[in-house]
Amino acid sequence: xxxxxxxxxxxxxxxxxxxxxxxxxxxxxxxxxxxxxxxxxxxxxxxxxxxxxxxxxxxxxxxxxxxxxxxxxxxxxxxxxxxxxxxxxxxxxxxxxxxxxxxxxxxxxxxxxxxxxxxxxxxxxxxxxxxxxxxxxxxxxxxxxxxxxxxxxxxxxxxxxxxxxxxxxxxxxxxxxxxxxxxxxxxxxxxxxxxxxxxxxxxxxxxxxxxxxxxxxxxxxxxxxxxxxxxxxxxxxxxxxxxxxxxxxxxxxxxxxxxxxxxxxxxxxxxxxxxxxxxxxxxxxxxxxxxxxxxxxxxxxxxxxxxxxxxxxxxxxxxxxxxxxxxxxxxxxxxxxxxxxxxxxxxxxxxxxxxxxxxxxxxxxxxxxxxxxxxxxxxxxxxxxxxxxxxxxxxxxxxxxxxxxxxxxxxxxxxxxxxxxxxxxxxxxxxxxxxxxxxxxxxxxxxxxxxxxxxxxxxxxxxxxxxxxxxxxxxxxxxxxxxxxxxxxxxxxxxxxxxxxxxxxxxxxxxxxxxxxxxxxxxxxxxxxxxxxxxxxxxxxxxxx
Length: 545
Description:
Elements: H1 9-41, H2 48-67, H3 80-95, H4 106-138, H5 146-203, E1 207-211, E2 217-220, H6 222-232, E3 237-238, E4 245-246, H7 252-257, E5 262-269, E6 278-288, E7 294-303, H8 305-340, H9 347-375, E8 388-391, H10 392-409, E9 413-419, E10 423-426, H11 428-444, E11 451-458, E12 462-469, H12 490-493, H13 503-513, E13 517-523, E14 527-535
Parallel strand pairs: 9-11
Antiparallel strand pairs: 1-2, 1-7, 3-4, 3-5, 5-6, 6-7, 8-10, 11-12, 12-14, 13-14
Helix pairs in contact: 1-2, 1-4, 2-3, 3-4, 4-5, 8-9, 10-11, 11-13
């Protein structure tokens, strides 16, 4: 950064010119008055007229410093006062040569050096030196000695120090001004961003609140207030199933104040059947400062009443239709089997009945999937499990054996060389449902003549089941929705392969109910691998509850 030189002096003077003039001039006037009194008391006055004239000039200059509006004059106008002071001190020095009044020249020298920098110091020292030497050379009683030359050097040193200090002060002031401007811009930018965030928060239709680490509320928006008022209009709060009452300590805000993090916590406000009943879904996340210390919690709340009612209506419809379809389908399949047992059926009739049987079986499987999906609905109803010590290798081998006819039909090879003998606490029927679904998908969506590898192992902590195929794979863009209900890949929708889009969703619900997880690894045109992870020896405590 370049330090401002003399050209910056007007700026320096203009900022506090009146104050600087008064301070310097009043100080000099007081010292001159004291010096004049001492000179008179000690009878060192050589010329009383010059003494009075010098004191008068200093006091006139001091009065001018008080009266005149120096901040309206050009910057160089300030030179008038120190030059007048130099002349006045010259008269005082002549009036009392033995009183060392020449030391008073230090005041205007410092003043000019600090106000105008280097060139001001040179000007002041030059005038003072000329005045001093003229008095020495014109006074026959004054002897030429070291003081004759050291005194101007001393004045020059004082003026130089004042000039350097002035430059440093000016540079610091410029730096402070720049920092102040930068800080002001930062404050304005922060205020603008705060206003923008506030406007956005007030515009959205979901509630947002922020809590301090101590649990105090510091930020909220209008939507949160509306949701709170709607909640206040209802009587009690219920869990996600809509029928289990919960206390105030289990509400999202209370949980967040205890430091809990959660996602999509659904709470019903209002008794079942109330028209004003509301469903609020909340998510809480912890905030951290730059030093990773706790900065509190942020809670987002959304009114999902319409969505939940629509979802429940759909699930009720699916469950009702599925139950209504199961009975006639079972009856149809029973009569078809009886008809197929007739040895007198013609080949044409037998083939027609076999088509009816296959399609009825498909419909019954679809109904079973729909009922299972309904059981694992968003109402919070857990799948019913009956865990027991199970040899999963037996379940896998039975599932592969049952799938072989379909695999042979599509010329797909199923290898179980990597299946190890592994035991786990699981529901064998539900796990058979998962394995059947994974094998069925691998066969249906594989290329004719493809290959499927089934593996089962354990690392002592988890049981790992893998079903791999070398089929067309799954597009990466569809992976996030792969386990959603009723979702079918675009590759499947454009083919003749039938499916409900429920199998993977049901499989994930079953695996999660066992305390595990199901994931997929896939590469387009190279196949897919579905991996099931289960606890090795125990399931979740609430399995089957």
